[in-house]
Amino acid sequence: MKIEKDEDIRILHWLTPVDYGPQQSDYISRRQAGTGHWLVDSAEFQAWLKSDKKTLFCTGIPGAGKTIMSSIVVDQLSVKFENDPSVGTAYIYCSYKEQQMQKPEDLLSSLLKQLAQQRPTMPTNVERLFTRHEAKKTRPLLKEIIEALDSTIRLYSKIFVVIDALDECYELKGDGDNGLLSAVSNLQNQTPLHLFATSRHVEKITSRFRGCMFKEIRAQDDDVLRYVNARMPQLLQSQISKHPEVQDTVRKNITKAAGGMYVHLYALIFAKPD
Fold first, then answer.
1. Residues 41 and 139 in one domain
2. Fewer CB within 10 A of the end CB, N or C, for the chain?
3. Which helix (H) or strand (E) holds 2?
4. Residue 233: exposed, middle, or buried by beta-carbon count in 10 A (0-12, 13-18, 19+)?
5. Residue 1 belongs to some domain of the structure
6. C-alpha dist (Å) from residue 108 to 30, 60, 115, 181, 239
7. 230, 32 in Cβ contact below 8 A?
8. Is this prediction's pTM over 0.85?
9. Same domain, 239 and 252
């Protein structure tokens, strides 16, 4: 049972008005049925899922489908642990378009909000944080948010945190001892927190994950074929629709031309002739 009291909902909104739920719904709706199994069924993902507070870091070139894969991971976790109140899931979709909401305080407050709202009652430390600041119309310090997040995580036996597109997080350009990754890393050392994170190949970010579990994300041929087959009516002219051999050639050529990038795939499928 999740929080439903008006006062508790008010506290959650006070923590942050940001809600990544609509983005999750949008991204997972774009998934072609049957795709993404290569990641969630992989040895790396399964080992991460069953391990003790580990990090699985996934890099990929632009357009490789990292965000859709993150949404698949969130969906998998939500379904798997739907009936287990001892396991919590929280996620962040970073975006260069939302830089004003990507300070460490904002991002960690979002994680706190998501984990708090999955509890049957509002965590005591979150209530105290609200009471301490609401009357004075002040905002909690980063240290206070981390402390509340720490105590909330400890209410669970296991926590899964998904952070997509770290390379688009403006805050990480100055990430030091008080940044997002540092805070999450410290929390992981002290609590049962599992982290799944994605990023483009950016040395400043990838260097923070040396020694962690790793998986490359790129458009897989089987997934590309699923997309192509689902959109075949848009690709075929009426004069070749009755020629399976021509359709096979179209499939093979598009799969090859995609080159591991869904952006190439979309361009090939939806491009209009000059």
1. yes
2. C
3. none
4. exposed
5. no
6. 27, 25, 11, 10, 56
7. yes
8. no
9. yes
Q: What is the DSSP letter of 207?
A: G
**Two structure tokens written together for 178:** 């008080």
Dihedral sign, CA of 114, 117, 123, 127? positive
> 3-state secondary structure string, 54-91?
CEEEEECCCCCCHHHHHHHHHHHHHHHCCCCCCEEEEE
Q: Which domain holds residue 106?
A: 6-216
Q: What is the pLDDT of residues 82-115, one digit of tens each?
A: 999 999 999 999 987 776 678 899 999 999 999 9
- 149-201: per-residue pLDDT in tens? 999 999 999 999 999 999 998 666 555 555 899 999 999 999 999 999 999 99
CB atoms within 10 A of CB 78: 14
Q: How many residues does the chain have?
A: 274
Domain count, the chain: 2
The label of the residue with tokens 């897989």 reads 220
